[in-house]
Task: structure prediction
Amino acid sequence: MANTDVVKNFIDGEWRDSVSGTRIEVDDPSNAETIAVVAEAGPKDVELAVAAAHRVFRDRILIDMHPYDRGRMLFRVADALDTRHEEIATINCAETGKALDLARGEVQTAIRYLRYYGGLADKLEGRSIPRGANLVDYTVRSPFGVSAHIVPWNGPLELTARSLACAIATGNSVVVKSPELAPLSGIELARACETAGLPAGAVNVLTGYGHTAGKALIEHPDVRHIVFTGSVATGRTVLKTASERIVPCIMELGGKSAAVVYADADLDCVVEAIHIGSFLNAGQNCNNLTRLIVERSVAQELVERVKVRVEKLSIGPGRENCDITPLISQKQRQGIERACQTALSHGARLVTGGSALSERSGYFMAATVFADVTRDSSLFQKEVFGPVLAVTTFDDPLEAVDLANDSDHGLAAGVFTRDLDRALWTADRLWAGQVYVNGWFVGGVETPFGGVKQSGYGREKGQEALDGYVQTRNIGIQISQPSGSVSTRQRGTP
Ligand code: NAD
Result:
């Protein structure tokens, strides 16, 4: 492949080959064919990117800009994505394997994040603190400086856009380490930043591996803020490094989200929610519906209905908008197959699926449902990150909530019932960052999202996200009263 075809890194407003000259091949997961070659960023490229971002911070290029103008920059990035939305959706579909309509949705969500936080850029205010006649005291909400963003492959465009938009709106400069399995969407976002005329160095996008580029980025002494989205295991490593330099982090980690289904629920609505919540993007969503906690009296009927629905799902490449699209890689598929084997050995009953669809050239896996999953089995406890649903039954509401909360994770949860009192009682007790009632993925760009327990901390999305990108500083001014005698009348209020 000619060197000109190699996708380069975006550093300091320029497209640069990696210092080492090494490459990463990007596969189409639906047929395992190479679709692009990107320059593999390593520690030296990280050094250049952080230096550029640090210069932007040191020279106050974003901080001194009127916040309205920072917002307008984000609008221009959104417009640049919008102009090429179909082309970018096609790239996103090809590198992630997800359905084209889902990729189209991802582009639109990325645009929404940019416009949402662009609109909030001039609304982030401090406060004035009354401290008597001789003091003026106020707070300012300042950026941290260089903000490092480590992104996973399952939503590479929208997840990059959501943290990048918050960071720029608040005056931080950004270095993104895009996911090695799907680096092209982040590059498209960098192109949009270039088209939008962002100051050189304000946004830098690197395509490299986690253990080299990602590690060098989080270890860099000029990185003052980290947004990590990925697995709990990698998040733990990132946090250990961050703790050495006391760098604040936003941690968006994995989940094992449960839905409680009461006997009075609309079962058609539950089946539809499972289709979307468990099997969209081959189940590779952090807030996927992975555990179904069903009241015993309707469990058999619901499992039958789910089986019928799941077995009708179309299987094929994302560009054909099939229901079950491939997993991101062969390694990911092998891990999910292993999880299915372990579930069987732990006594779960296979309802449908359970194995790879090896007759296809890509990384396809059958949509899988296990029933009779007990709370001590690893399928109940561990994130699989694939199209696998675990069904467990309950007899009373307290048991249902106890089962749903019996997890180290707490990203999302849900409840299905026609009884409003029961819905509210349950929603209040489900210990997760986001709770859905009678649907799945009910949240949006404007609703705060993030984990409790090992699913992480800090919030993305919504107005709350901005709090994680600023630190409050306090300024107190001692003032003197006018000299000379002041009459009682002059000292009073008018
Ligand atoms: P991962 O943890 O393997 O990788 C995430 C990112 O971290 C990648 O860019 C990777 O290159 C990088 N990385 C790996 N090792 C690193 C290191 N030592 N230092 C710095 N960076 C390193 O996760 P994944 O397989 O890409 O993504 C799937 C996981 O992400 C799932 O657990 C899923 O639940 C989670 N996720 C969470 C959210 C959320 O918002 N909470 C969203 C999407 C995905």
